[in-house]
Each structure stands twice: as structure tokens, then as C-alpha cells.
Amino acid sequence: MPQIFIDGQPFEARTEQTVLEAAQEHGVYIPRLCWHPKLSIAGNCRICVVQIEGRSWVEISCNMPVSEGLRVLTDSDLVRAHRKATMQFITLNHPVDCGICDKAGECTLQDYHAAYNGEASVSREPKVASTKFYSLSERITLDNERCILCTRCVRFTREISKSHALGVQERGDHSVIRPAGSLGSKTLDEDAYSDNIVDICPVGALLSKSFLYKSRVWYLKATPSVCPGCERGCAIDIWHRRPEWFVHSLDAAQNCAIERVTPRDNPAVNGPWVCNKARDLAQVFERPRAEAPMRKGRVVALDEALSAARALVERSRHAVALVSSAGSNEELQAFQGALGGRFTSFVKRDAMPLPGEVVADDLLIRADKNPNGFTARALFGGAEVAFAPETDLVLVWGQGVEFSRLPRGVPVIFLDAFMQPENGHADVFFPLSLQTERAGHYTNFAGVTSGFEACFAKPASVVHAEDVFRSLAPVKALTQAVSP
Ligand code: SF4
Ligand code: SF4
Ligand code: FES
Q1: Which of 3, 270, 273, 276 has the smallest C-beta neighbourhood within 10 Å, fewest atoms?
Q2: pLDDT tens column, 450-480
């Protein structure tokens, strides 16, 4: 372990580290624009310069290996002067349109300008004009005037998603990011991970069309969650309006809308990436909701629905449950504790691959499109769904069941969150809360358990599945379920 000195302080570094990485590990921040921990080193922005003691020039730290006795200065007069000059250079043609830029509030260039430059441009030349809206894909637009040509986006498509979708065209101040269009490259539309380039772009050059001009980021709060799109269970942040910025006029639905979804770095699960399916969770969660309990299509009070379902459970002798593989660990355990002894339970797949969706790959995407098959199968086994002839009650929890394939004439209790014809066909229907309305945990295919928190309050008329299961428990099972 080489010992290095950063600003006079001795630190133990690891042989494979660069000065920038070793400094970061020990809490010394060196600015960076083109460097990213998961991408190759490009060394093109020059903002990460440091000075080796005794030398009269600066060098980039993102590509400087540590060595025994190395003494670097990260904040000398020379370093500060070069950083300032570099910021002047990088912003030479950068427009001053932070007021309308989606990245404002989380833009590295904005922060560095305040920290390391802080002065108006010294240039007397007009800024080079370039394309403001270049559509790179159905999902992403590019503002070439804001691009600082760090090439993070290009390296991401080459090294991580492997679509090779992007490249740099032209030279000097004519350089622009464009679709690569080369032999063997895919388009950005074909890249299932494309939206990660919006996150890693250090400026507001790459913009998500679904978030474009939708909200200022300081109005939003990020709630930790887990993507339910497949059994990987990627860690995500769901962004929604902060309570202190709730709108009290216009459309109040904005207060409980998912504004955007971004990855939350979890090295044990997804690293800093997610696939585009996570970005589109609003389309899943904001489908028309079922909000009223029903008996054979007739809206009833929750108490009446519970009494009717309880009577069906008590009368049954051969009850079958089709258990959700999208239920949380807490919900699955609640079902097992309250009703597991009463039902023969089978784990079903609530979700299957959608047409056109990448089914599986060797980066993140898994073929099982349910977040918690791991816990469901651990509790209820992996047997195929089968109905014995004597089946006298079926409980369906969640999606993925064709009602026409259930045994004819057998009463059905159905629990789900969304509006669909099957709700009215069930003998008793319970409208469930969404993942964004409760806290819980999923355990992914590799056995890693991740937690999610509630973003919004549930509508008063919907119920948590856990509460329904406990209410339906025969008295003996309930006593067992709640005893320590
Ligand atoms: S678009 Fe963003 S990530 Fe890509 S080169 Fe430009 S500044 Fe870098
Ligand atoms: S890989 Fe699976 S869990 Fe991760 S973001 Fe994509 S769909 Fe969601
Ligand atoms: S971060 Fe080192 S040159 Fe860009």
C-alpha cells in the first residue's frame, strides 16, 4: 500500500488507484467532469488538475497512478488558477440558460462555476450557436450548445450498454455528439439502458423528454424504492413533489404524481444503473385505479366485503390461493401467518415480458418480471398451479391470472390495485394499495433484500393486502400470527 501525501497529509492508497480515487476515498474532493467511476478514463476536461510538489506545472489526477511518496497539492495557487482558466474555457460557448435548463439545481458545471470560477466570461466573441433540440431517440433530446464534450455518454453506450449508439462528429468547436450510425451499432431507441446517459451527463445537454420542463428539481423529493420490473430489484429513487411545494390550485393530482425515476447506487444489486423500464414506472403505477370493495360487481363498504370473504374462507374445506410474486416480504409473511394453514398456495407470475421488451441480458435485466418470486417461492414452494376437483374457493392476489381458467362455479376472492373487468366478476373484490403507498422489502433473485418507502398516502377506500389477510384469518391462525 503506497503512502501518498495530499496537501501535506499522509494517506495509505491502494496500488491500483489514481490520485483522484485515493483523494476521494480519504474525503478530499477533486473536481471532475469527464471522469466517472464506472467508465474508462478519457482525460479530456482537464478540471481535475493537481500539482506535484516542486513542479511548476499541473497534471490531471484522474489518470495519475499513485506511487510511494507521491506528494500532490489539490488547492495550490497554480491549481486554482488552472481550474479557473479551464472553467472559463469550458463555458466559453456554453449558453447561460440555467433558468430554463432541467439540470439546474443538480448541474456539476453550475456548481463548479460558483466554486472555482465565479466570474463573467472573459470572451468578447459571440458564443458558437449549435443545435438546441436534436432528437437522439424517442426518449432523449440533446442540446448541443450545453454539451461540454466530456464523452461520458459515448463511453456509456460503448462500455456499459454496448449499443455503441453514440459518437462524436466533426472537430474543434464544430464537434457534436451524434448517433454513431456505424456498422454494428444500434440506435439509442434500441438501447434498453439509454436513459442513464441523462443522469451521467454532467450538464443539461441530454434531457429526458418525459421530464422536459416538467418541474424544477428543488420542488421534488426522492423517496428510496425498489424497481418491481424484474427479479433484479434495482434500487431506485422515486421523485415526487415535496409537501412544502404542494400545488393548491391547478391540478392537485400533481402532488401525488411520479415526476421521474433515477437509479440509487447499490453495488450489491444494480450499481449506478437501471434499465428504462424503471424510468417508466409512472405508466405502471398511474393506470386507472380500483378504489372500491365490491361483491359481484356491486360496490360495498369494506366491512361488508370483509364479512363476505370471511364467510367464504370459513365455509371452505379445499381453498386454493394464487399468491402474488409482486407482494412484499411483509405481505407474503402476513399471508402465510394468517391464511397459510387454510389455503393450498401456489406462487403465480403476476407479470410476463411485454411485446418488444428485452427479456434478459447480461447486464441487469432478468427474465422473471416479478420483484419477489424469491420470497414467495421460499414460503410457498415452486409447484405449478393446479386445482383439485374438490376446490371450493379460490383467492387470487394480484395480476396475471386468466379468470376463464379458474374452476367453474367456485367462489373467487380477488385482491388487486387496478381497474379491470375481472374485479366485477369476483365474488368479493378488495382494492389494494400500491407499492408507492406503503413501505416494505423485496428479496431479489440473488437473495439480496432491499427496502422501499411510501411516497404517497393511499386513498382512504383502498386497503393494504396485509390488513385484509389478517382480517380474514380464522381466529386460531390470527392468534398464532400475532403471538411473538
Ligand atoms: S452530451 Fe453530456 S455526457 Fe455527452 S459529451 Fe456532452 S456533456 Fe458529455
Ligand atoms: S433491470 Fe429489472 S429491476 Fe432493474 S430497472 Fe430494469 S426492470 Fe427494474
Ligand atoms: S476528470 Fe480528469 S480530465 Fe476530466
Answers
A1: 3
A2: 999 999 999 999 999 999 999 999 765 444 4
